[in-house]
Each structure stands twice: as C-alpha cells, then as structure tokens.
Amino acid sequence: MGLRFLKISVVYFTIAVLIGLVMGIIHNFTLTSVHAHFNLLGWVSMALFGIIYCIFPSAAQTRLAKAHFWLHNIGLPLMQGALFIVLVTGNPGLTIVTIIGSLLIVLGVILFAINILNLKSNQNRISN
C-alpha cells in the first residue's frame, strides 16, 4: 500500500506541474486552486501516506488502508475534475460533484486517522 500511494502521488505531482506550466505560459491563473489541490492532496498528502504505510506495514495491510486508498483516489479526480470544469466554463452545475469528491477524500482521511491511531506502540515498524 505504501508503494501504491507513492507511485500515484508522482502521477498527481506531474499533473500539478503541468497545470502550473500551462497557467504560466498562458498567463491565466484561473486554475490555481486545482493546481494547489493536486499538489497538496495528490502529491504531498499521498506521498506522506505512502511513507507512513512503508514505516508501519501492519497499518498498510488493513482494510482501512485499502478503503482509504480508493476513497482518496476516487474523490480527488472527481473533486478536481469537476472544479476544473466549473472554473473553465463558469457554470456551477458540477459543484455537487466537487462536494461529493471532497466528502470521499474526507472519509478516506478519517479512515487513515483511525488506522494510524489504532497502531500499538510496539506494532510492526520497519527497523533501521
């Protein structure tokens, strides 16, 4: 699970960098929030989830970790894809999809928190 999160974080980082590049080239920064969310919820958060799951492999093997992965990776593209369309078209019709995607991410993060908070102090950690 740790490696899955690390690999997908690099995909989101690439998307964020490309959005940033395009915004800079065309001097239109309408998509700044999409760029920032892909960086923070995609690249940074998922890389951290991956590192934490690598450090605590027992947490990575739980159903909570699998649910967390899928909720985050369904929620983020939904939220940002809908927000992208809303920002580009000016039509707020997909705002509900943005909200649904956001709620999926929140639920995934709550599952991650529960998973990590349930770790015992002596639980399976990688050794140096």
UniProtKB/TrEMBL annotation:
Ranges that cross the membrane: 12-30, 36-56, 68-88, 94-117
Membrane found in the keyword field: yes
Keywords of this entry: Membrane, Transmembrane, Transmembrane helix
SUPFAM superfamilies xrefs: Cytochrome c oxidase subunit I-like
Superkingdom field: Bacteria
UniProt KW Transmembrane helix keyword: yes
Matching InterPro entries: Cyt_c_oxase-like_su1_sf
Protein name (Swiss-Prot/TrEMBL): Cytochrome-c oxidase
UniProt source species: Schinkia azotoformans LMG 9581
